[in-house]
């Protein structure tokens, strides 16, 4: 071994430097794309009389405000404790030898390396889901107390099993690819992981509406009639090619109202909760106009591509962390084998399936760190879809009444605090959206929707 390699087991310095440069470049690209393309101000222009400030008391009765506050107090403890316990568990498993020991035990009789990946992934996914179950059940009991859930416990439990199955399939595919490429190319697996991560995110987002959503809901076309033809007319007027509007049997699970766009290209669909169909048609149009805003801007595809770019950067960072002998030792995994040789499968290194707990811990930490940025950008994109709905319907009064109905029926948080915005809010709050509709009315010299109470 030469002098230079003494502190560079396996000649990892050069690939690590390359991975660091790639990670920095990819994260810089994501930051630049987000900074330049996020609609920071979806309603540009000089607003006569100024922008309207959100004021929940203007449109919501004291009883509605009190109910929202009580629901928030009831749903927050399971949400926060579930988040903290879930994170703490995976961090303890991944950043101490506990996870590696556990995986060693459950895969002791499993011969093939990739089979060990499958077993380890199943064991960890199940363990994490079971640990989260009390908090999910607690949350469900709150939803039930407030009349938001229509499920029985057996059907709720079946949902938990299904979502465990979906999470397990997706994470197993990802881990199999990762451990295959890490084993095959011990020094340069970050290139394959970055490319594979990018493609997998795009693929999952594309097939999600046809492969995952039907696991949880049944869908049918919105029946022929006035509403359907009005909605398709509106889409045509908007220049968005929509052949069908789907209805999901959401009422088997919830009383809340919602609609969404998922997929892109040939899998793109606009879906309405069946609970929404009891609302007045003009309000449904207001919601669909918002969804058309997403469809027209290809928000799902855009979010998928930016997310995929972020995952590619994260894979380069993952390589840097997973080739750190200190971190591997901390996780109870022996670092690379003899210098210059591929880490052998039992011997250690990032290709050792016992490091899966460490991978999951790093992914969980990264996801949590990225969430506030994701939520911030999502809120601006949602506001742009709202602006689109207002431009298309030119009916801020109906928009306001729909937002009011959404907030009341879903018992939305009418006064979210700063932490709630950062951690949970993918959409502006109901009062934020209502204030925006009033701002839109001022901007377009249309009568401002009066207070609802
Ligand atoms: Zn939206």
Automatic annotation (TrEMBL):
Keywords for the protein's UniProt record, in alphabetical order: Hydrolase, Membrane, Metal-binding, Metalloprotease, Protease, Transmembrane, Transmembrane helix, Zinc
Protein residues bound to Zn(2+): 290, 294, 382
Cofactor(s) the record lists: Zn(2+)
CDD domains: M48A_Zmpste24p_like
Species, as recorded: Actinomadura spongiicola
InterPro entries to which the protein is assigned, alphabetical: CAXX_Prtase_1, Peptidase_M48, Peptidase_M48_N
Classification via Gene3D superfamilies: Metalloproteases ('zincins'), catalytic domain (3.30.2010.10)
GO annotation terms (biological process): CAAX-box protein processing
Pfam families, sorted: Peptidase_M48, Peptidase_M48_N
Domain of life: Bacteria
Domain (Peptidase M48): residue spans on this chain: 224-440
Cofactor: record remark: Binds 1 zinc ion per subunit.
GO molecular function: metal ion binding; metalloendopeptidase activity
Name of the featured protein: M48 family peptidase
Membrane-spanning parts: 79-102, 114-135, 163-181, 188-211, 300-321
Domain CAAX prenyl protease 1 N-terminal per the UniProt entry, residue ranges: 87-218
Active site per the UniProt annotation: 291, 386
